[in-house]
Amino acid sequence: xxxxxFVLDLKGKVLISRNYRGDIPMSAVExxxxxxxxxxxxxxxxxxxxxxGVNYLYIRHNxxxxxxxxxxxxxxxxxxxFLHKLTEVFTEYFKExxxxxxxxxxxIIYELLDEMMDFGYPQTxxxxxxxxxxxxxxxxxxxxxxxxxxxxxxxSWRSEGxxxxxxxxxxxxxxxxxLLVNANGNVLRSEILGVIKMKCYLSGMPELRLGLNDKVMFxxxxxxxxxxxxxxxxxxxxHQCVRLSRFENDRTISFIPPDGEFELMSYRLNTQVKPLIWxxxxxxxxxxxxxxxxxxxxxxxxxxxxxxxxxxHVPVPDDADSPKFRSSIGLVQYxxxxxxxxxxxxxxQGGKEFLMRAHFGLPSVKNVDDPDKKPPIGVKFEIPYxxxxxxxxxxxxxxxxxxxxxxxxxxxxxxxxxxxxxLPESIKNNKMTPI
Length: 435
What we know:
single chain, alpha+beta, Beta-Lactamase, Immunoglobulin-like, nine-stranded mixed β-sheet, five-stranded antiparallel β-sheet, 8 helices, 41% strand, globular, membrane, Adaptor_comp_med_subunit, transport
């Protein structure tokens, strides 16, 4: 539980505050900025610290600090999560959350602070529910009818009485691949970060059950996994609508969904990932004269899949000029403001391999051979109808007391996350023919 919430500017000046419990002097906030600066000077910044019996928990967003104070032995994670939800709600209301938007919306912010927390305990934090009775025009608040049932309901994220002519659910399984390859071609780091996003257009108060090819669930129920690949998810996080006790007992993902778009869950797989798009580079430099690149890109996934909107960003020296390019596919452009060349391939089919060559003039004498000082090659891509982990939606059951039939739609997408390959050391021998 939090005793008080503050929004401050970067100098520590209080823009707005709400004292929920009255057990902490409001002057305690004056100690916050000196303590933060002291921690930053010692290079040990932390999102929570204690001073003179008061716990300070904060996050930074744009040019603001959102700070919570408490004297109780509270759950720090809960308070920090509430501060993040506060930024989400404010951003939904004001489009941009910054110092100016705080100053322009004092009335509505106080209304939101009062509804989102009561005596230090988080209450309604879903923006769609709040927007039903706290409107952007704060002067209308006096004539608002009573708050929607969702506020006093056990299901605080969904209103009753929702009706759609056509009941549909859209489910997107999106996986981002993080990869780091060193100059010798060895994979130093690889992981998959996944999210399942939903768009629910369902009438009434439906119950949904989602089944995945979850290895732990298969093993606990004694089901064979030989027919299909089962995955072992780590760091699973759910939207508040999911019944956690049910998931912990039998790995069933059961929930009453919010209306519209939301993120149902996220997960991580710390696994060795075969690079989906492999990039090799041969770099030849002539100090003070020119530098040449030969780039080979290969799609290392199945032929029936295609990567869309592929971008390969190859770093070049800051003072490079007079670019010349030749490629077997796509479009190559020089981006001097980013000190890189960008090779764009609209569609890259699995199993295919392409070459690109580039030539730049170097007007000044610079050492470009230190691989540790050179930025890595970055790759962007999106592969539809494909997941790296092999996750599958086995079923999505929709049950509502009126008995209507609903159509579930499932889509899989794999995309790049932090996907980087280090450039090899430049060679000095004239092995390349001029472009």
